[in-house]
Amino acid sequence: MGKLKATDLEKLEPRRKGYPDGDGLYFVKTKRGANWLFKYSLNGRAREMGLGAFPELNLTQARAAAADARSLKARGIDPIDERKERRRRGKTFEEAAREYWQVHCQNLAKPSNWINGMEAHVFPHIGRRGTHELVANDIIKFMKPMWDRELAQKLRQWINKVVQFVSVDDPRVDLDFLPRITKRLGPQHIDYDNHPAIPWQQAAAH
């Protein structure tokens, strides 16, 4: 269990050497802001890997990122070199979507609904493709049969969010291919899911 408490992070005084959480994870705070570092050594070489800024990356997420880095290190892989290689290759859509979910979806009423929907309906079709490689036809193939369902509307919005998220760091990402899907398939005439009626006595008062 880590040493730091989420409720204490805002109150900590600036300290350039950082506050250790354990297992190489440090919370570094300056007058300009705060961020997370993973400190480790590999092949006799001391290294520091930036994991992200606080509060965009919370304590739970920072611990998960540090755990991923430790797992790579345990296999003799330098986490910093691996990240550089991933950036060179470009994130797969599934990698990008899971990162987006960790950063932007944890405050949803039911965060699991978002990632479960992606796992069931999107990742099997485009999860292994590089986000920068995606074209309209990749989405049309699996969206067409469900185009007029409420689910398709949600998935299209979620996919768009992930693509925009990746485009900030990868200029190769095509931001225009999603509008082309609508032009190909036409406007969505959404068949919203009907929920069973309940007796008026059980309805909430307004």
Layout of strands and helices, then pairs:
Blueprint: E1 15-22, E2 25-30, E3 33-42, E4 45-54, H1 59-74, H2 79-89, H3 93-104, H4 111-121, H5 123-126, H6 136-143, H7 150-167, H8 177-185
Antiparallel strand pairs: 1-2, 2-3, 3-4
Helix pairs in contact: 3-7, 6-8
- Strand-pairing-aware structural class: alpha+beta
Biggest sheet architecture:
4 strands, antiparallel
Q: What is the multimeric organization of the chains shown?
A: single chain
Distance between the termini: 46 Å
Shape: elongated
Please compute the radius of gyration using only Cα atoms.
21 Å
What ranges have pLDDT less than 50 throughout 5 or more consecutive residues?
195-206
Helical percentage: 40-55%
Largest sheet, spatial ordering of strands: 1-2-3-4
Can you walk me through this structure?
The chain is elongated. A 4-stranded antiparallel β-sheet has the order 1-2-3-4, with helices on one face. Strand 3 and strand 4 (45-54) form a beta hairpin. Helices cover 43% and strands 17% of the residues. With 206 residues, the chain is α+β, with helices and mostly antiparallel strands. The protein has helices spanning 59-74, 79-89, 93-104, 111-121, 123-126, 136-143, 150-167, 177-185; strands at residues 15-22, 25-30, 33-42, 45-54. Helix 3 (93-104) crosses helix 7 and helix 6 (136-143) crosses helix 8.
